[in-house]
Design brief:
The complex is a heterodimer of chains A (112) and B (110). Chain A is mainly β and 112 residues long. Chain A is 0% helix and 63% strand. The N and C termini of chain B lie far apart (36 Å). Classes of the chains: A mainly beta (112), B mainly beta (110).
Chain lengths: 112, 110
Amino acid sequence: SQQGEEDPQALSIQEGENATMNCSYKTSINNLQWYRQNSGRGLVHLILIRSNEREKHSGRLRVTLDTSKKSSSLLITASRAADTASYFCATSMKTSYDKVIFGPGTSLSVIP
Amino acid sequence: NAGVTQTPKFRVLKTGQSMTLLCAQDMNHEYMYWYRQDPGMGLRLIHYSVGEGTTAKGEVPDGYNVSRLKKQNFLLGLESAAPSQTSVYFCASSHREKLFFGSGTQLSVL
């Protein structure tokens, strides 16, 4: 089974609203990353957070990590129509840090 | 600077045929990965490599073989294609733990 699971599977919001996506994982991690995929394209790296970090920011993105709950969240503030995409979390486990395992993703639709 | 290049972009195979997907990166990255993406299942790791001459199994390695004879190339082979291998295949290389993806190969097995 997959290491990471995103929630919700799909999210639809109005432009200007904030979007929050969650990721849960099963085993201890080395780091957790978030990626974005526009329809039919390859994935693009957004942000990486290490297991000893609790929060990171990058522009309109905010990622939190709670290792006690084995979960992470991605917040996109002031969403734009161009943020419409699928978002995936990916984990690198402590016991096998070379492997990068992806969750099933959250499909985000931002309505203009 | 092309990044990660996958060839071919599209391919249709008949059941039982074989083929090789090529991934090439020009960023001198050590780590390379092959994933498959199916609707609703995200990306699943097939095989990966941590350097020239090395390969390792991922989550779904059965039915696939790989080779990393040169640092810049990572080949994914299907020995006897099955309809269950119909998918979009993505290659990625890694630098400082961040993955850089190719644009994908859409494979249909009839």
